């Protein structure tokens, strides 16, 4: 690998790490960088997972303050995400790449639109039966997000952020920190599966992983100084732009 390509993928990783913690969209940077490096779409996805596990490491270290007292919640929600991720990996392995490429734009667009409506919903005003059903529906939704994360992953963090905002009463920074750690565990599970079933371009994954680690460590420190409204608008805008790009490449 040339020094130029190494630096290019390193930069893509740093950008992805920042987007992961600030805008929940690491793959919207890292995935196109891998594609532009000449890696086929499905293998770009598996290589992407190999790099993104370090995003969970960097963001967790930088967010220990926000995660304090919330570890039980994180592990509980992670169970549903990890199971869903394993199912999503199975779908990716068994469905052709053409289907994969055509579904992606709609998933990303939906994620971006959803974040605009991800404000707090006070479930305490509901009766107990309604509240319980909403909690069950939310857990099923986390499972579905895990499936999507295993199948593609781009903007899956946005969906997870929306759901966690709905079912918890924690502030945005805490929910975002929980999302980052759960997303990192999801990427780790996907990587373990793909290591034995699919091809991973390790020479591309290594520089990108280094960049992701750097970016994800810096992200939580930056996000503490950005208004939540601006973050949500930024997330939605980036998602819709990226969805348009992927739709163009898939259907032209």
UniProtKB/TrEMBL annotation:
Coiled coil start-end: none
Chain segments annotated as transmembrane: 74-93, 100-119, 139-164, 176-194, 200-218, 230-251
Membrane topology: Multi-pass membrane protein
Subcellular location: Cell membrane
InterPro entries named among the record's database cross-references: TM_pro_TauE-like, TSUP
Domain of life, per lineage: Bacteria
One Pfam family in the UniProt entry: TauE
Keywords: Cell membrane, Membrane, Transmembrane, Transmembrane helix, Transport
Family in the record: Belongs to the 4-toluene sulfonate uptake permease (TSUP) (TC 2.A.102) family.
Identification of the protein by name: Probable membrane transporter protein
Source species: Lactobacillus colini
Lineage start: Bacteria, Bacillati, Bacillota, Bacilli, Lactobacillales
């Amino acid at each position: 690998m040339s020094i130029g390509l190494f630096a290019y993928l390193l930069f893509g990783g740093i950008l992805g790490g920042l987007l992961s913690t600030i805008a929940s969209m690491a793959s919207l940077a890292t995935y196109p960088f891998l594609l532009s490096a000449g890696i086929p779409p499905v293998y770009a996805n598996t290589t992407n997972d190999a790099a993104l596990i370090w995003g969970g490491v960097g963001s967790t270290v930088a967010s220990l303050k926000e995660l304090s007292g919330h570890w039980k919640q994180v592990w509980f929600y992670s169970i549903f995400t990890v199971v869903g991720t394993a199912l999503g990996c199975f779908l990716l392995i068994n469905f052709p790449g053409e289907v994969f490429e055509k579904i992606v734009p709609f998933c990303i667009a939906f994620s971006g639109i959803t974040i605009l409506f991800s404000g707090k919903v006070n479930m305490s005003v509901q009766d107990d039966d309604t509240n319980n059903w909403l909690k069950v529906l939310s857990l099923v939704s986390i499972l579905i997000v895990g499936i999507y994360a295993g199948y593609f992953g781009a903007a899956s963090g946005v969906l997870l952020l929306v759901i966690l905002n709905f079912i918890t009463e924690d502030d945005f920074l805490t929910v975002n920190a929980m999302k980052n750690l759960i997303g990192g565990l999801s990427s780790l599970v996907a990587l373990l599966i793909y290591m034995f079933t699919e091809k991973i371009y390790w020479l591309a994954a290594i520089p990108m992983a280094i960049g992701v680690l750097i970016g994800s460590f810096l992200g939580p420190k930056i996000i503490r100084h950005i208004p939540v409204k601006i973050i949500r608008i930024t997330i939605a805008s980036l998602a819709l732009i990226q969805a348009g790009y992927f739709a163009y490449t898939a259907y032209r």
